[in-house]
């Protein structure tokens, strides 16, 4: 997979190194000569250019990329790169870094963003996830379909503890994608029984989050 990363700072280089280890083809783009540190990521391609300029993106052959990551420290730049990647070059997947949480509402399909990653929001979500049992924690927002990646740790008093996945009447527009049980990562099937302490990861429509939390969090009293 060919991936272009706009922004060759610490974040961009870190992403590049990880993706290279996984066998992907990486192009790092930055307009600052001081950011071009080929020796730090020697297996990547490097381009000294302004990623907000069409001529630069033509030179980068962005139309050949499967993914573009807008990873600069400037939200305005990341939005422009995302929009150009999607509308001018038809890049299938655009991931954008959100530096200021106040700007997060802009990072949506209208600006060509498929996935917006807000580091401050993610850090706060991970803190919440570490200390919250029975509360739904939003980890990541997907622009398409107004869906989020959410997590909930099933409390001991949950009504569904001991219930098989296939027997649960899940809300519409939600999908249980992973069960983390201790050190194990399980791909759920309908025969798996939920256990107290399970970390459940869902992709869910935002409008269904409250319903999902109600379903999982509280042991219902017998009628």
TrEMBL record:
Residues 1-117 form the RCK N-terminal domain. Gene3D superfamilies: NAD(P)-binding Rossmann-like Domain, Regulator of K+ conductance, C-terminal domain. InterPro entries: K_uptake_TrkA (IPR006036), NAD(P)-bd_dom_sf (IPR036291), RCK_C (IPR006037), RCK_C_sf (IPR036721), RCK_N (IPR003148), Trk_Ktr_HKT_K-transport (IPR050721). SUPFAM superfamilies: NAD(P)-binding Rossmann-fold domains (SSF51735), TrkA C-terminal domain-like (SSF116726). Keywords: Ion transport, NAD, Potassium, Potassium transport, Transport. It holds the Pfam family TrkA_C. GO terms for cellular component: plasma membrane. One of its GO terms (molecular function) is potassium ion transmembrane transporter activity. Residues 137-218 form the RCK C-terminal domain. It comes from the Bacteria. PANTHER family: POTASSIUM CHANNEL PROTEIN 2-RELATED-RELATED, TRK SYSTEM POTASSIUM UPTAKE PROTEIN TRKA. This is Trk system potassium uptake protein TrkA. The lineage of its organism: Bacteria, Bacillati, Actinomycetota, Actinomycetes, Kitasatosporales.
């Amino acid at each position: 997979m060919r991936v272009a990363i706009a922004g060759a700072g610490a974040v961009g280089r870190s992403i590049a190194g990880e993706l290279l280890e996984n066998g992907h083809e990486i192009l790092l783009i930055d307009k600052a000569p001081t950011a071009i540190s080929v020796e730090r990521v020697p297996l990547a391609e490097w381009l000294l250019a302004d990623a907000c300029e069409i001529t630069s993106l033509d030179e980068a052959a962005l139309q050949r990329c499967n993914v573009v990551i807008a990873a600069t420290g400037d939200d305005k730049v990341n939005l422009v790169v995302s929009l150009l990647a999607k509308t001018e070059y038809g890049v299938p997947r655009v991931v954008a870094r959100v530096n200021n949480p106040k700007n997060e509402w802009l990072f949506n399909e209208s600006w060509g963003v498929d996935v917006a990653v807000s580091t401050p929001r993610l850090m706060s979500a991970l803190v919440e996830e570490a200390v919250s049992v029975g509360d739904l924690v939003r980890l990541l927002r997907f622009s398409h379909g107004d869906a989020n990646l959410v997590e909930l740790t099933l409390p001991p008093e949950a009504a569904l503890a001991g219930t098989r996945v296939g027997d649960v009447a899940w809300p519409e527009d939600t999908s249980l994608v992973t069960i983390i049980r201790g050190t194990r990562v399980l791909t759920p099937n309908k025969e798996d029984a939920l256990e107290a302490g399970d970390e459940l990861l869902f992709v869910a429509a935002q409008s269904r989050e409250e319903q999902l939390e109600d379903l999982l969090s509280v042991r219902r009293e017998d009628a």
